[in-house]
Specification:
Carboxylesterase, Esterase_lipase, 245 residues, alpha/beta, Rossmann fold, carboxylic ester hydrolase activity, AB_hydrolase_fold, 7-stranded mixed β-sheet, AB_hydrolase_sf
Length: 245
């Protein structure tokens, strides 16, 4: 089975632009449904690809990516949309992307509003994220690389040996973002699945209490709200949020 390499996308269809940031084991593909929906409603949409992502080697995320690089990419993406002469820039992020979308709202004046889906902010244990990444890595190795069972096990052991340090880096960045939540004065959308197994669903309410401008939306769904059974309602809610902000 050959899987096409994911790529960033940019849909240029309006003076207001939405930046969509993907998750730790995801790619811009997870944001494409939402992106196309917003494009049809006359928004420009940009979904960059975080460093280390979109390859057939999960280790690339752990070895080539870092919170510092991903934040630099977020800043560069906002600048790209400004260079495209967009009059308004919004930023939304899924899971890992939620950290940087929130940081953008805390620190980039040009971002007028934004929000998060399945945010890890205030989630204290990353066990669910680690297990999901290991499952993802095993799937990638079984589908995209012609490895023996022994070779796959060796690869997975290497991933397992490196992932804790990377998750610790992410957690430190997340904690710094949490410390500044009260600084957000712009409209902030929070989308959270009530059956999310990767982050603590109750943490969304804590974030909502800290961000006085927030709108909390709960969905009877799991983690990846942009593509799971909640995606149509999520898209509709995001559009309504944009139209009113």
């Amino acid at each position: 089975m050959k899987i096409l390499t994911p790529k960033p996308f940019y849909f240029d269809n309006g003076t207001s632009a939405i930046l969509l940031l993907h998750s730790f084991s995801g790619t811009p593909n997870d944001m494409r449904l939402l992106g196309r929906f917003l494009e049809r409603h006359n928004y420009s949409v940009y979904a960059p690809m975080f460093a280390g992502h979109g390859t057939s080697e999960p280790l690339d995320i752990l070895q080539q990516g870092s919170p510092e690089k991903w934040w630099q990419q977020t800043q560069a993406a906002v600048q790209f949309l400004k260079d495209q002469q967009k009059t308004k820039v919004y930023v939304f992020g899924l899971s890992l992307g939620a950290i940087f979308a929130t940081k953008a709202l805390e620190s980039i004046p040009e971002v007028v509003a934004g929000g998060v889906f399945g945010s890890p902010l205030y989630t204290h244990g990353y066990k669910g994220i680690k297990n999901a990444f290991l499952t993802y890595a095993k799937k990638v190795y079984s589908i995209q690389q012609n490895l023996t069972e022994v070779e796959t096990d060796n690869k997975l052991r290497l991933v397992d040996s490196k992932i804790d340090a990377k998750l610790m880096e992410i957690r430190k960045t997340s904690n710094l973002v949490v410390e500044n939540l009260a600084e957000i004065k712009r409209p902030y959308f929070i989308g959270q699945g009530t059956s999310d197994k990767l982050v603590d669903p109750k943490a969304a309410s804590q974030v909502a209490r800290d961000v006085k401008t927030s709108q909390l939306h709960l969905y009877n769904a799991g983690h990846v709200l942009t593509i799971n059974q909640a995606h149509n309602q999520v898209a509709s809610d995001v559009l309504n949020f944009l139209e009113n902000n």
